[in-house]
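Reading a protein record of the kind used here takes only a little practice. Think of the row as the fold of the chain written in a discrete alphabet. A record is reproduced here so that you can trace the correspondence yourselves:
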Amino acid sequence: MSDATADGVSVESDRPTILGHPRGLVILFFAEMWERFSYYGMRGLLILYLTWHFLFESDFSLTLYGAYVALVYLGPLLGGYLADKYIGFRKAVTFGAILLVIGHGLMGFHGPKASEAIVIDGTSYELTRMEYDESQSRNIVVDGAEVPILTFEQPEKGSDIRNISYETDGGTVTATGTIERVQSPLYSTILFLALAFIVAGVGFLKPNISTCVGALYEEGDRRRDAGFTIYYMGINLGSFLAGIFCAIAAATLGWWAGFGLAAVGMLAGLIVFVIGQDWLEGRAEPPADVDLKTPVVAGINREWLVYLSGFAFVIVAFFLLQIAGIMSLAMHGVFAVVTTGIVIYMLAKLEPVARDKMIGLLILIVSSVLFWALFDQGPSSLNLFAAAHVTNEIGGWEFPAPVLQSANPLFIIIFAPIIAALWTFLGKRGKEPNAFFKFGLAMVQIGAGFYVLNLGIAGASEGADGTIKISVIFIVLMYLLHTTGEVFLSPVGLSAVTKLSVKTIVGFMMGFWFLASSYANVIAAQVARATQVPEGAPAQQSIDAYSAVYAQLGTAAVALGIVLLVASPWLRKLTHGADGSGPKERRGEVDAAGVTLDRSPD
């Protein structure tokens, strides 16, 4: 039975609730909190793990990281489609969680650190360094004794040559040799396999668990907005906690502990979801008209064919990650071809009003590529920057560099509701900015964030130990501006897709949004590579390289932002009245309350 509210909205009254919401919300809150704990805990460590444990060159590590996140953004296209058409959201989430437990668990099996030696005049000398050491100091083993290396310089990026110096009883020794690094084939394979399982797991879980939240509420139920807000608070709570605890575990106990904690978090999420499935009350089941159990191919039924396709995706991702550079190059062509195809379609097939709307949407989506390419420097180049050039201390507490990744979810929890309330306040008075104006403000803010960081760099000086570090306050302020920029921009994206797309290709344009997010991470990796200098370069050369690239990024973002702000009155005309505040969404996840709280791929 149901009761009608005062405004006529029908809401079920005989279903069990907790704090006024369907019981299933509690299950989804904790399941997704732990899933985000695992995802962001691992992601915050990944770039440092690749460069410090496997001793991959920074260029390769950043390219691999970019390819990994690009695939993470593409995965939900497959997982969402298979859930919609065949297995339903509950089964998709469960399967995705299982894949993620496997992936995160494999990350904990990293084996011994890659070996490193330098060959000088035909003699090989072992090099040693700590597993987790943000200073990355080395020792050279001479006559069985470990001797600290004073200088360790690579003439140019990509070179195997190293110029080193170290002290002996006979004085300072300088030498030039060839570096040799050997990674374990077994554990390198485990690394790529782990990342592939995570890619596939996110693809099945992420787009479907949010849909489960919506399925808990009847159409028009006024509790839906608050339900999504509660759910997204869980997402960012998990992200915030992961940034602190996984980073500290890795720094103090070892990589296995950081990744292992992420795996435990994902396992907790799976257990919570499986135990609490009954509380979903059958609202995330497969489509009623789909027969999942009858064998269709070689005695295999449709349900298991879906699961096998998931494992096939793992295999594809496994191989793509090993050719990350080629994949990144291919993404340029794919994005260009798809964008060109959309333009041709608009010109050839659409009448003027529909064409104008699609042009406006295309401007927003293409602009978002720059924003996300800059925003996603956080877990890549900015993570490396924090380790090398930020005084990681607050109130006497020294913390590992990846802890700073927790700033973004913390700021979202604090400021997203405030900004959402601002839009509501302005909307009631007919003064809420249009989508193009919001995009412009977002671009200015993310650009200003890099300017703030460069202010800190400009005032930094070399310390007695040869390092150059800026106060942590500058990177925290930068993350604050990046976060407010995200909240200004990301709720607009998919909402614009639903409002401005031609109805017959809304699904395709949704896919194009995902493709743009994926492509942005390829660009982000290339940008991050530009910040890197030859290994062992002086601190001044290193920080100057970061400063130069971040200045260019800031200028590009502010310039595009100003263009969008100035042109927004004319650009809004392209929407023919379709633009408005509307439901707020975040790259694949609808937050009906207008609060954008997840920064993840969807």
The chain has 15 helices and 18 strands. Confidence is low (pLDDT under 50) at residues 1-10, 581-597.
